[in-house]
Amino acid sequence: MLGRILLLLILLPAIEIVFLVWVASKTSVLLVLLMLVGAGLLGAFLARQQGLRTMQRISNEVSAGRMPGDAMIDGVLVSLAAVLLILPGFLSDVVALLLLFPPSRSWLKSVARGRIRARIMTSYNGQVHTFDSAAGGRSSARDEIIDVKVIESPPREIGS
Q1: Taking the CB of residue 100, how many other CB atoms lie within 10 A of it?
Q2: Are the CB atoms for 89 and 16 separated by under 8 Å?
Q3: Which residue from 82, 101, 144, 146 could staple onto 47, CB 3.0 to 4.6 Å apart?
Q4: Nearest Cα residue to 99 out of 83, 115, 114, 87
Q5: What was the pLDDT predicted at 159?
Q6: pLDDT tens column, 7-33
Q7: Structural domain spans, the chain
Q8: What angle do CA 71, 74, 76 make, to 5 degrees?
């Protein structure tokens, strides 16, 4: 995983620079700069708007006593979009704008939800347990009741 992130950090700027130079050679440097600034301004406006909307949804869900899972995924995707907008380049701006528009973000949320759900599965004593938010956050495996009795021992002195 760390290797993929490192590779992405190396390749993404290189691809962005090549693409910027190519677009500038086909149009003009001034037009490329104007498009970068325009995409940045539009993205900053959308990131602020969607970020505030997501924070309000999280607050409403928590106030209603519900787990704000869907709104939390929105928050992560909007935050990722904000980070991508900081990076100069067209490709990162396009991905960021896609993350900021609710219709494209809903598709990405369904993909992310499936990946998260697949990672939450655990195995214990040969049984597979999965977190099921539809069941109120309970485990899908049968709960086992264990009866224990706590016996207190007298306190020990420190240093003895």
Answers
A1: 26
A2: yes
A3: 82
A4: 83
A5: 67
A6: 887 888 888 889 989 999 999 999 988
A7: 11-120
A8: 115
Separation CA 82–CA 40 (nearest Å):
10
Which residues fall within 8 angstroms of residue 10, CB to CB, at 6 or more apart?
A: none
Name residue, tokens 């609710």: 102
Mind listing the pLDDT tens digit for each residue in 83-119? 888 777 888 888 888 888 888 888 888 887 777 776 6
pLDDT at 145: 65
Distances from the Cα of 56 to the Cα of 16, 80, 104, angstroms: 34, 18, 20
Helix axes 69-86, 29-63, angle to 10 degrees: 160
Instruction: With a cut of 70, say whether residue 125 has pLDDT above it.
Output: no
Count of all residues that appear for the chain in the document: 160
Question: Which residue carries 């709104």 as its tokens?
Answer: 71
Q: Which residues are CB-contacts of 88 (< 8 A; sequence separation ≥ 6)?
A: 16, 20, 36
